[in-house]
């Protein structure tokens, strides 16, 4: 169980200033709100550490997690907040595993976020979970003028460049991390994607789907490639990942890109985040023209934040790992319209399909040598194409 984070406990929230009426305590974990109507003045008082007289719910945004936007008031002022959690009991009953995702974001804000330098994050006032819920009370970003990314749109190159700097800050801080370092962080990403792949062919070959190359709609082939990709990640580039770094999980703070929605964090190859972000954020033409320069910049920021390996885009093992990582976009190729709007799926699937085809990713992964060598410590040039060139075979 995570320790709760109450950054402003026993002091005042901005615009809710004044002395506390009494010593306040965190509510029992068993009593976390389960529905929107449970977000009461008494509950907010207990978690924020200041007396809240009234709560007005101003908006509700459904999704994997529900975002409840509220205005909390007392005699000294008001504060607009976002309360994020699992407030749809019927949805949770249908998919009880979804609670794990809520809990994971709580853990991120409690354990990881306070340690990050150079990465700007939404202010979280409090976060905790129990067996059936996970809640983060954070700032309402729109209240201070932030705007949110839209997967239908693309970003200019300079903004994508700023975004890779944010990812580099996260990756550098956790570079070389091992599962034992985060025993609370379960490894579920690979299996979740492979489970979704069971309906891949039916979805990608269904009516009104975005254009995807015919060979990329082959369920058996893509599934086999994903399995081999997951087995062959190069541990040289291992770190903590955002896990879902697309434009729908971003916001702009005075024009600067920032990441939110930390429900999919996991340990993996850094290039999962980088390739996924670059391919999803740029037009296909700009990605083809600028991706290697953006990758150069990302590597320079890693070095700035303390990663000591002399990583270069000319390194063959790095280039291979980057190209493989476009497989992170397969989720958009098979994304049903019940999960993401049609216009978002069409826009994103087109960008990722183009990247997978440009980089010949399926052929690349199919050419990999056995990972048994990699597990013995041979971390470089263990790919068939590279071995052939080096050996003269």
From TrEMBL:
Q: PANTHER family, from UniProt?
A: AMINOGLYCOSIDE PHOSPHOTRANSFERASE DOMAIN-CONTAINING PROTEIN, UNCHARACTERIZED NUCLEAR HORMONE RECEPTOR-RELATED
Q: What is this protein called?
A: CHK kinase-like domain-containing protein
| Source organism per UniProt | Xylaria bambusicola
Q: Which domain of life is it from?
A: Eukaryota
| SMART domains xref list | CHK
Q: Name one Pfam family in it.
A: EcKL
From which lineage does this chain's organism come? Eukaryota, Fungi, Dikarya, Ascomycota, Pezizomycotina
Every copy of the CHK kinase-like domain together lies at: 136-308
